[in-house]
Amino acid sequence: MTRPPGTGTPPHVSTEPRAATPAPASAPAPAAPVPVAPPPALFTLGEAMAVAAAIQPGPLATGAPLRLGWAGAEATVAIGVSRLGHRAAWTGRTGEDAAGAMVLAGLRAEGVDVSGARTEPAVPTGLMLRERRTADRLRVTYYRAGLAGSRLAPGDLDEVRLAGSRILHVTGITPALSATARAAVERAVVVARAAGVTVSFDVNHRERLWSRAEAAEVLGRLLPYADIVFAGPEEATLFVPEDQPDRMARALTRFGPGQAVLKLGARGALVVAGDEVHVQDAVPVTAVDPVGAGDAFVSGYLAAVLDGSPVRERLRLAALCGAFAVSVPGDWEGLPRRAELALLGAQDISR
């Protein structure tokens, strides 16, 4: 640190080195410094819940085999970024129950920092029941209203760690859960923006949680804070008229984001960044489970942002992560690690 002008060593103070004064025999040994974890590269907050997923097609009935797991949009992005080599932190609430313990243990096992997570002794962790009604049709039922994930509040945020991160990622799911969860997301984007942290916003509209009108109003307030916005074409129509994907993406950037990414499913994706439009084909794979593909895509894109990659490479990595995700059952289980990218990445999938 530079000394302020006009200051120096006062004339009555000697600059000669002094002999060290021995410590009294009774003096305690100095305490070891408490290690401080470095801030995460990615900070995110949201809901995570247990998942009971049918293994075989058909209606749920007594004795039907189920696979137990857990999921959450923001948690999936945190895992994807962590597997690709960047520190990620997740903040949320779980119940003080077996499901909550499973969620937190799973995130820790994936290297995600959950020091900001809280447990709720009075309410349980939410549950997603996933039924494979036919071989190619999923039916999902959520049990989440008033449960632990919806108790997220602004006071749960570690604003110091948030301000020290490089990317804040939020979705349109969490603001729909409750007034306090909405306030937490709104506070997070304000803190991030003030600190110069890149704000990533995935619209992720869920019609079961709220109406399009309410979603448009609330999420429309978040959009100007975003540096990167992700949406599907239908989600984008919350804010802009239906049009060609590149025109819709360009219209989204007029709200403030420097980059607008449209996820087009089997047709790939495109991003408008400044005056440029980049298009990415989907990676051809055998789809096993489509759930979680959008979050996997986002995790790849944000990991590439943290890598310092150009936009075209961000899209490429995003497409690879989405392809890995849909080729494995579960929301996040199929997310790739760096060493695995070559399994699908040998193809020239950009144009």
UniProtKB/TrEMBL annotation:
It comes from the Bacteria. It holds the Pfam family PfkB. The keyword Amino-acid biosynthesis does not apply. Residues 44-335 form the Carbohydrate kinase PfkB domain. Residues 1-32 are annotated as: Disordered. Keywords: Kinase, Transferase. One of its GO terms (molecular function) is kinase activity. Belongs to the carbohydrate kinase PfkB family. PANTHER family: 2-DEHYDRO-3-DEOXYGLUCONOKINASE_2-DEHYDRO-3-DEOXYGALACTONOKINASE, SUGAR KINASE. This is Sugar kinase.
